[in-house]
Design a protein that fits this description.
Blueprint: E1 4-8, H1 14-24, H2 44-52, E2 56-62, E3 65-75, E4 78-86, H3 95-105, E5 111-116, H4 120-128, E6 132-133, H5 136-146, H6 151-155, E7 157-161, H7 163-169
Parallel strand pairs: 4-5
Antiparallel strand pairs: 1-2, 2-3, 3-4, 5-7, 6-7
Length: about 170
């Protein structure tokens, strides 16, 4: 669609990022473990903490309205894709694919993505775009090494890696 534009988000986009994340995360309700769910999926303080910790959000606008966001974060020798969400009315229209492709072009590092193990639609999306799930043992190590998440989230998540990571670490 010609009106779509990818751009880095800034502090003026905070409220829209917050709204998109929490609207789109409703898809997790009843899917992820109940002890990991809350009606405000990502409180504003948690979003602020993610940004302060180095997550840089990029947005996709359509006709001047922010319809999707995705974060990128350099952590040591890898780049993480974090907090990828698209407004429910704009899903399945290529927004996530545009954001993912753009963010992957921003780095030469291996790219890792963590998501909920029961979010099969998210896993399929990333696999469709060339990411492959790592083994259980690799997942445990990667989540503890590159993410700062609760142990319960480690237990209930998966990690997917791009081809660059597999070339370097596939035999581990």
């Amino acid at each position: 669609m010609p009106d779509r534009m990818i751009h880095p988000c800034n502090h003026r986009d905070f409220d829209e990022i917050y709204a998109i994340v929490n609207e789109a995360a409703q898809a997790y309700k009843g899917v992820i473990p109940a002890d990991r769910w809350s009606d405000t999926y990502m409180p504003s303080e948690e979003l602020r903490h993610a940004i302060d910790a180095g997550v840089c959000f990029w947005g996709c606008e359509d006709a001047g309205t922010l319809i999707g966001v995705m974060g990128i974060q350099k952590v040591r020798d890898v780049t993480l894709i974090r907090h990828a969400y698209v407004r429910t009315g704009s899903q399945k229209r290529g927004v996530g694919a545009l954001l993912l492709a753009h963010l992957c072009q921003l780095t030469q590092d291996p790219v890792l993505i963590g998501t909920w193990a029961d979010a099969v639609w998210a896993i399929r999306f990333y696999e469709k775009h060339g990411f492959r799930m790592v083994s259980h043992e690799q997942k445990e190590r990667l989540l503890r090494c590159y993410w700062s998440i609760p142990e319960r989230q480690v237990e209930t998540s998966v990690v997917l890696a791009d081809e660059n990571w597999w070339k370097l670490h596939g035999g581990e």
